[in-house]
Write a structure and sequence with these properties.
Length: 234
């Protein structure tokens, strides 16, 4: 069946994940939660940050997890209500500030123009929150390309449950097998499989090496810039 829609992961697929989130997390921990500077590094490492590379490990909480998963990891002694409030503060007040640090991986509008000219319907599926993701895409002036921006808080269960693909299809009328899921982490490839997507496309612009993700994908690309050519060839 022909591909009629593309659902993009965001961090590591459309924007540079480490350059965007490492400085925000450092700022957040010190300024918003009064974490002593000496403890910040240890918390980042616990979440999957590798000081030697300045990057998050593929599949780690900071690379692929939701705000709730990260908060539970960093503050395990908080009560359920306290944790819920903290997640809300991060998602609604802090995460949208990522636009101050955001680094797109390329001139995204060129890729989206080409895909839209092919008649494809586009969306974003991220384990970031909807508000944060929308703020970032708006800041980059590409939000208008997407019919839907789906955050971890837009669905009952976030990636890799398959719910984001189901949500996108319910809103667009597309069948799952008509959708290509594009991402840089194993979670994205699992989302494609669990959601019944017609195509799972891995990109190597995030924290996953070829050996870590290619075996999970139908196709592996250097970046989303190669996606239009791939879809034309199918």
């Amino acid at each position: 069946m022909a591909i009629k829609g593309v659902l993009f992961d965001k961090d590591g697929t459309l924007i540079e994940v480490n350059g965007t989130w490492v400085p925000l997390y450092r700022q957040m921990l010190v300024e918003d939660f009064s974490v002593p500077p000496d403890d910040v590094e240890a918390m980042l490492v616990k979440g999957g940050y590798e000081p030697s590379t300045g990057a998050f490990r593929a599949g780690s909480a900071l690379a692929a997890g939701t705000t709730a998963q990260i908060a539970e990891l960093w503050w395990p002694t908080l009560s359920k209500d306290e944790l819920k409030k903290r997640v809300s503060v991060i998602d609604n007040d802090i995460a949208p500030r990522a636009k101050e640090f955001i680094k797109p991986l390329m001139e995204l509008s060129n890729v989206f123009d080409e895909l839209r000219a092919m008649g494809l319907r586009l969306g974003v599926a991220t384990n970031d929150s909807f508000r944060s993701a929308h703020a970032q895409m708006n800041h980059l002036d590409v939000h208008h390309y997407f019919e839907h921006i789906i955050g971890w808080d837009s669905v009952v269960i976030p990636k890799p449950s398959g719910h984001m693909i189901e949500y996108f299809c319910s809103k667009t009328g597309l069948k799952p097998e008509e959708v290509a899921m594009v991402g840089d982490n194993g979670h994205d490839m699992e989302e494609a499989r669990h959601g019944g997507a017609g195509l799972a496309v891995a990109v190597l612009t995030g924290n996953s090496a070829h050996s870590e993700i290619a075996h999970m994908a139908d196709h592996t690309l250097a970046s989303v810039a190669d996606l239009p050519a791939l879809l034309r060839s199918l």
